[in-house]
Known about the structure:
Largest sheet: 6 strands, mixed
Number of helices: 3
Strand content: 25-35%
Order of helices and strands: EEEHEEEEEHH
Structural class: alpha+beta
Number of strands: 8
Low-confidence stretches: none
Mean pLDDT: 92
CATH topology: Nucleoside Triphosphate Pyrophosphohydrolase
Radius of gyration: 17 Å
CATH superfamily: Nucleoside Triphosphate Pyrophosphohydrolase
Amino acid sequence: xxxxxxxxxxxxxxxxxxxxxxxxxxxxxxxxxxxxxxxxxxxxxxxxxxxxxxxxxxxxxxxxxxxxxxxxxxxxxxxxxxxxxxxxxxxxxxxxxxxxxxxxxxxxxxxxxxxxxxxxxxxxxxxxxxxxxxxxxxxxxxxxxxxxxxxxxxxxxxxxxxxxxxxxxxx
Length: 171
């Protein structure tokens, strides 16, 4: 099934499983402080939003695809760089819309100035019939955990708790 194609619906009476995504929470330690890499989604709906709009690189898990493979693929699609560090399972988060996100964590560096995101196409303005292309991510930024808590989607903030717990257990 092509990426972006709607999945077949189950017959009436059967429950529809929630959408399934996977993503990478990339972190680094700089001057004794942990920072995470977050991206800002591209497109007109997000253009005026900053606080509460940032997220990890993530996307849908295709049928038959392992979540870790999907997370690495989405990281590369949204940043333009392959994931070079080992990604290990971190947590599973249910976002406010019901989507399940399997989160993997990796320690590595990335230069936000090198962001080269894939693009998507949509009619814009709505109902205009004009198709426009937008980057999946228009910015990337390293943030301290405190800053990330303020800037990222509320439904993704539990990922930061899981990272902190993981790093505490290593000490």
